[in-house]
Amino acid sequence: SPMASATAQAGDRPSLIVRYGNFLFRYRNGVFPAVMAAIFVLFPPRPLFGDWATDRWLDLAGLAICLAGQGLRAAVVGLAYIKRGGVNKQIYAARLVQEGMFATSRNPLYVGNLTVLAGLFVIHNNPYAYLLGGLFFLVSYRAIVAAEERYLRGQFGREYEDYCARVNRWLPSPKAIGPAVAGMAFNWRRLVIKEYGSFFSWVVTALLVFAYQAYTKLGWPGAWRSLAWIAAGLAACGLWAAAIRALKKSGALRDPAGGWSTANLVKAVELYRSDILFTLVLVTAARETRFRQEAMASRLCQTSIIDSLYTVVALARPDAALENLAKIENVIVTKQY
């Protein structure tokens, strides 16, 4: 497979940090939230200079940092998206993405993630959380990047080496941003489809930290009003994410660059009808497998629909159906060898 061959080219025995990175790449969606929750629970929030009123300014600063990280992620996804989830939770890349924000940093999405995490730790504000959380996530993302770099070197060879020599691993180069994004269209629909989950995750985390702060400051009797507002915010976030997910699943919200949309299909049908080659168009869509010789799934889908239509007609007109079957059988018999 491509993943196995790339790994073999990069060396038979990966280093410890690469193995740790491969582990996190596979299980980070469970490991990262668990570690974050454990750190926040074990080390409660502390007010800035011992004053909760002053701490509000620190909360605003933390939110600003989170928004900066989200803004970077939005720029990356809207301009040139790269699938960071791999294939079957293993590192995989069909091509080396070098355009958009990837022309300014080799890991702009991870830089955005670390920035959002930094903002959440600022909102929480506990020195032990800063130390342990910062150390864990910095080492973890460095390990994931090491694993990805090992794979990419084996997969793309000289092309990737040239890319590394030209582009920073972490911090985006300000001078490269303008030329990198010049002439590129921003895909807002893809941004919503691909990024709503990340946005939902950190906003919910921030709201939970605010709830933790209110409880730490006032206790249950005095914090109920703040907790009620936070609960309303959590409910609103949940409804918003559920609505986007439903639109995405129904096909009403799709990435125009990700495949055929309903509008594209309608245009294609109108184009073919303009040639007066036929009066009825049967359009089907199916999710194809990655490794295939032809579009078999969509063909099977069309065949199933045609069989169903034929069965309905045959039941409505049995005599004509039997007559046509006899004609087909006679033709087949004469062609047999």
Automatic annotation (TrEMBL):
InterPro entries from the UniProt entry: Phopholipid_MeTrfase (IPR007318)
Name under which the protein is recorded: Isoprenylcysteine carboxylmethyltransferase family protein
One Pfam family named in its UniProt record: PEMT
KW Membrane (keyword) present: yes
Cell compartment(s), UniProt: Endomembrane system
Claim: Membrane is one of the keywords in the record: yes
Gene Ontology MF terms in the entry: transferase activity
GO cellular component, one term: endomembrane system
Membrane-spanning ranges: 30-48, 60-82, 103-122, 128-145, 196-215, 227-247
Keywords attached to this entry: Membrane, Transmembrane, Transmembrane helix
Membrane topology: Multi-pass membrane protein
